[in-house]
Specification:
The complex is a heterodimer.
Chain A (H helix, E strand, L loop, with lengths): L7 H7 L1 H20 L11 H19 L15 H27 L5 H19 L3 H19 L6 H32 L4 H9 L7 H17 L8 H8 L2 H26 L4 H24 L4 H22 L2 H29 L14 H4 L1 H15 L5 H15 L3 H27 L14 H19 L2 H12 L23 H9 L6
Helix pairs in contact in A: 2-3, 2-5, 3-4, 3-5, 4-5, 4-11, 4-14, 4-19, 4-20, 5-6, 5-11, 6-7, 6-11, 7-9, 7-10, 9-11, 9-12, 10-11, 10-13, 11-13, 11-14, 12-13, 12-18, 13-14, 13-17, 13-18, 14-16, 14-17, 14-19, 14-20, 16-18, 16-19, 17-18, 17-19
Chain B lengths: L7 H19 L5 H16 L2 H4 L8 E9 L4 E7 L1 H20 L8 H20 L3 H10 L1 H11 L4 H34 L6 H4 L6 H18 L8 H8 L2 H26 L1 H5 L1 H23 L4 H22 L2 H32 L10 H4 L1 H15 L5 H16 L1 H26 L6 H4 L6 H19 L2 H24 L23
Antiparallel strand pairs in B: 1-2
The chains are: A mainly alpha, B mainly alpha.
């Protein structure tokens, strides 16, 4: 099927996965309202499977997008390999995040349709964030995602920690949204459009060079994104928010919000704003450096596993930023691959933490993990796989991901970033191994209760997650191929090709746009 | 082509312990050790014919295979053996049954996991020695850390957690920098030829500029030097050896340390021949090896703990091996390789013997013993033979290796050879007093009078080691013949490539400025 964005129906087709998720969310909410007698009663158990079904439907719709031909990428939403891959990642996060969270919701007696609705709405925001090419839609998407997640953070309403975390996250997040909006305004002011393809061509034509207002706009936009992916020094909220939030929500935040934030950075900064590279190159480089070093050192001092994992998730943002800083198709592919792997391992880790922590999420100290490996062998083995993957140890997907990022950095001549990447990974070995040693090398005292047996959904998600990481570590061929296609296939800045340049010029590694400009992209309508 | 001439023998050698490990996990508490023993003996018997099937007199890689694995990165399952790796593989399969049988009564909890870890370790070790693809090699190199971390951490002594984490982190420092160097090498190769490959045979042909060689060599050398361990990065070794359970120490000393020296021979020296033969590097490594030999011996001499004493002797012995490798003569390198085997056998046996004492008395302090020869005669006999082999007495294997190293080194670096020769004297100065204080003299402690001599199982554990000590001592020919062609070819290759190392990058092609978007090429 050929998409033609002059027909509004075709825009619906282009947005089909998002629409499926949003409709599922609304159906869940409405059915839940009507079938539940009182506000505090738990929902019927079938809302969970219903939401999962909707998400699987969205996955299918997303796969269907692959079959579309789009001669003119002039809509506010891109239909390209990168968006589709990001959608798969985000939908995967949602499906696995929900599967992991059912046990927690039941245990805490808080199984309600609102939770699922909020997750689904956040997912819609995340998906739009990875696909949009318009600054206004970007803002709407980021707010839809953020507000849903603020509420999810405070979802455990009996818990003071949860409320505190939500408030902190909300206040800081509102600030960041302000920055973002201000950045959008400045970019609009200096270029005169919120449509990114126009913004890009304006910058490329040189009308905006040496424009301090544009520079400020790009910088503020980057601050907003850096906040969402919790890059140092905009990470202050992360440990508190992650620690206080209900643990399954933390996993969902760490995996989903970060993936969406990186999708936005890759698309908006490195692709659409590529002509303004001088404005952001240095900033991204320093963000990557700091985000690798600071949280890895801070994580060493944590004795709470949940908080340690929060710092570890900040550190992973640093590794991912290396892929962004490489600013090449290889770097973008590596970022994509690592995001997928990272989502699997971080979701699994947080899920196991809540299982060990017990009712009320009380026991998440390192010492609470003593003897876990012998008491619950399968759970222990899964956690070992997740931790080794987080550490980037073969034969797991985390290792392949880091190798991918590393080769991107080496290829772009960023050897300092490459060496920092491995040295900070080395630091991280210590705190990941510390959890393993608690689980296996130390005996559990009698007073420490054995974690309850996980439910079917949890077991399914954890075993699929761990196996997927091992497969990604041993047979990554398929994943690498997908990632490299998607990392190359970003809807390019259409009008950027320098006027005199022959369209048949050699595909330059740095500039996927130029190589594709001749093939399937035409001028955006003005 | 028969099974033993094809790659299948190597592939099965990799998979068999892995399958055994899985079987151990599902076996019962009491059966796991038998499963492990049978697996390891089967692997040994499987590897043994390689010794005769192997064609001598050619440096060619034998039992070679290369099966595409991760196509878009040019990664393949590439394995094969030459004379050097053949001996290392045989050493591994020889040590493992001893280590497993030696654990029978020592390990009393979580047996299935323990034996599964040992077998997983076996796969990783064999893999390191036969891998001819840098990715595959790195995979096994790192994989080996995990089971060892568990073996030390779960079944080790008092300070096991400290020792386990120290072992892990020390090794990881080097290997991560090596990973960066590997990726850089792959990238340089791409810049030169426009092909992405991790294959050893390709990368070894890459002309790396002289200045780049030093950086890349340092990264590889650090990884391998830590593993060897070369002074001053040896400090993880005494902790790991002392805290590990007996089998862990046996494998550490017997096989794991050899990965470092093997890495130098196989990767660091041929890849960066100019750097490896430059005066700066040669003199640095020779000096560090000599310090290791003398310092290791002196520190060993004052250890009250017998196990720690043996641990420090490893530093000295591996110093000898490194000396042999970097003296860069055919004799010294062959001696070094033989000494790798010898050290594996004799130090492995020493750790087993000390483990047997520890099981009986729950102490390893030398002063707690005395007069053991009277109550444990067979034990005393074995102990003396192994100790003499460790010193390097003529007639034992240790002599042949050290002698070759010294002769070879004398030809190129006479002063170093003279200093190293004092190490042989020091070896007698720490080993003999220990033997004397443990075995001879009056039986002062009443507990020692009650000791029972080693039984049938323990004798079976020790006999192969004793036999090999004497066999290599009096008839080293077959072992040296295995390596001579490979070593000569290696030396020639190093010499040639060192002289050909370019000053400037050879004309790189602008078309290869950026790596292809990996994966798309393949379709």
């Amino acid at each position: 099927m050929i998409l033609d964005f002059s027909s509004s129906l075709h825009i619906v087709w282009a947005l089909l996965p998002e629409i499926v998720v949003a409709v599922t969310g609304l159906v869940v909410l409405m059915l839940d309202v009507f079938q539940r007698g009182s506000r505090s009663a738990p929902s019927a158990p079938w809302v969970g499977p219903l939401a999962i079904t909707g998400l699987v439907g969205a996955v299918l719709a997303n796969a269907w997008l692959l079959t579309l031909e789009v001669p003119a990428q002039n809509a506010q939403i891109a239909v390209d390999g990168f968006r589709i891959a990001m959608n798969f990642i985000v939908l995967g996060v949602a499906i696995f995040g929900l599967l992991y969270s059912f046990d927690w919701l039941n245990r805490e007696g808080q199984f309600t349709g609102e939770f699922i609705f909020l997750v689904l709405m956040a997912v819609v925001g995340m998906m739009l964030l990875g696909g949009t090419r318009d600054l206004i839609v970007l803002f709407v998407a980021i707010e839809l995602m953020s507000i849903s997640v603020y509420v999810l953070t405070g979802y455990d309403r009996r818990s003071r920690r949860s409320a505190e975390a939500a408030l902190k996250y909300f206040l800081m997040g509102a600030f960041a949204s302000g920055f973002l909006l201000y950045g959008i305004a400045l970019i609009f002011g200096s270029v005169g459009s919120t449509n990114l393809s126009l913004v890009t061509s304006e910058i490329a034509l040189g009308t905006a060079s040496n424009n301090p207002m544009l520079f400020a706009g790009v910088a503020l936009l980057l601050v907003g994104f850096a906040f969402k992916v919790s890059a140092v020094p905009f990470h202050m909220w992360t440990p508190d928010a992650y620690e206080g939030a209900p643990t399954p929500v933390t996993g969902f935040m760490a995996a989903g919000v970060k993936a969406a934030g990186f999708a936005a950075i890759v698309r908006f900064i490195t692709i659409e704003l590529a002509p303004a590279a001088e404005f952001w190159e240095g900033i991204i480089w320093w963000l990557a450096m700091l985000t690798m070093i600071v949280p890895n050192l801070a994580a060493l001092a944590q004795d709470d596993v949940k908080r340690m994992l929060a710092y570890s998730s900040i550190a992973h943002a640093g590794y991912l930023l290396v892929g962004v800083a490489a600013d090449s198709p290889l770097g973008r592919s590596a970022t994509l691959f690592y995001l997928a792997v990272y989502a699997a391992m971080t979701l699994g880790s947080f899920a196991i933490v809540y299982l060990v922590a017990g009712k009320g999420d009380v026991r998440s100290k390192l010492s609470d993990f003593r003897g876990l490996g012998w008491r619950r062998p399968l759970l222990g083995a899964a956690f070992v796989v997740f931790l080794l993957s987080l550490a980037g140890f073969p034969p797991t997907g985390g290792f392949i991901g880091k190798l991918y990022l590393l080769s991107a950095a080496v290829e772009s001549g960023e050897s300092v970033l490459a060496i920092t990447l491995v040295l900070t990974s080395l630091i991280s070995y210590y705190y990941y191994l510390r959890v393993i040693w608690k689980m296996y090398f130390e005996e559990a005292p009698e007073s420490l209760p054995t974690p309850e047996r996980p439910g079917l959904a949890f077991g399914f998600a954890a075993s699929i997650g761990a196996l997927a990481l091992l497969v990604a570590g041993l047979f990554p061929g398929h994943g690498l191929r997908t990632a490299s296609r998607a990392g190359e296939d970003l809807v390019p800045r259409a009008a950027v090709v320098a006027p005199g340049a022959a369209p048949s010029a050699r595909p330059s590694g740095q500039d996927p746009a130029a190589s594709r400009a001749s093939s399937n992209v035409s001028e955006p309508e003005r | 082509m028969s099974f033993f001439e094809s790659h299948w023998v190597l592939t099965v050698l990799l998979l068999l312990p892995l399958a055994g490990a899985v079987a151990c996990l599902f076996a019962g508490k009491d059966e796991a050790k038998h499963v492990a023993l049978v697996t390891s003996i089967a692997a040994f018997l499987l590897s043994l014919p390689l010794f005769w099937v192997f064609r001598e007199g050619t440096p060619a890689i034998q039992n070679y295979v290369s099966i595409p694995w991760i196509g878009q990165w040019g990664i393949a399952y590439t394995v094969g053996v030459d004379g050097i790796s053949l001996l290392m593989v045989l050493l591994t399969t020889f040590i493992m049954p001893m280590a497993i049988l030696g654990s029978y009564s020592y390990i009393k909890r979580q047996e299935p996991t323990y034996y599964a870890m040992l077998l997983l370790l076996m796969t990783a070790m064999i893999g390191v020695f036969i891998a001819l693809d840098m990715f595959l090699f790195f995979l096994f190199w790192e994989l080996m850390l995990i089971p060892m971390y568990f073996i030390i951490g779960v079944w080790g002594g008092e300070r096991r957690i400290y020792a386990a984490i120290k072992f892990f982190l020390f090794t990881a420092v080097g290997s991560l920098l090596m990973l960066v160097a590997i990726v850089t090498l792959v990238y340089l190769y791409y810049r030169q030829y426009g092909v992405v490959t991790f294959a050893y045979n390709d990368l070894v042909e890459l002309p790396v500029t002289r200045s780049a060689q030093f950086w890349l060599f340092s990264a590889f050398a650090l990884a391998f030097a830590i593993k060897v361990p070369l002074f001053p990065v040896h400090t993880w070794l005494p902790d790991a050896h002392v805290e590990a359970p007996t089998a862990g120490s046996v494998i550490l000393a017997g096989v794991l340390l050899k990965m470092g020296t093997y890495g130098f021979l196989r990767f660091a020296m041929p890849f960066f021949a100019y750097a490896a033969t430059s005066d700066v590097v040669v003199y640095t490594i020779l000096t560090l090896s000599l310090i290791g030999i003398v310092y290791g011996a002196w520190v060993a001499a004052v250890q009250p703990d017998a196990k720690k004493l043996v641990a420090y002797t490893s530093v000295a012995h591996l110093g000898f091996v490194m000396l042999g490798l970097f003296a860069l003569t055919s004799e010294s390198i062959q001696g070094g390789i033989l000494q790798m085997v010898n050290h594996g056998i004799s130090t492995g046996a020493l750790f087993l013997l000390i483990g047997m004492l520890y099981e009986r008395r729950h102490t390893r302090l030398i002063e707690d013993f005395g007069g053991i020869a009277k109550v444990m005669p067979f034990f005393a006999f074995a102990f003396v033979v192994v100790a003499l082999s460790s010193i390097g007495l003529p007639g034992t294997n240790g002599f042949v290796g050290e002698f070759l190293i010294l002769i070879g080194t004398f030809r190129t670096h006479p002063v170093a050879a003279v200093i190293a020769a004092t190490g042989v004297v020091f070896a007698a100065a720490y080993m003999l007093p220990m033997v004397q204080r443990v075995l001879y003299g009056p039986v002062e402690d009443e507990e020692n009078r009650e000791l029972t001599d080693i039984g049938l199982r323990e004798r079976i554990v020790l006999l192969p080691a004793l036999a090999m000590i004497v066999l290599i001592g009096v008839y080293p020919g077959p072992f040296l013949e295995k390596t001579s062609a490979s070593v000569d070819a290696l030396l020639q290759q190093i010499e040639m490539r060192a002289s050909q190392a370019p000053l400037e990058p050879l004309g790189t092609d602008v078309r290869f400025d950026h790596m292809p978007i990996l994966g798309v090429d393949e379709d």
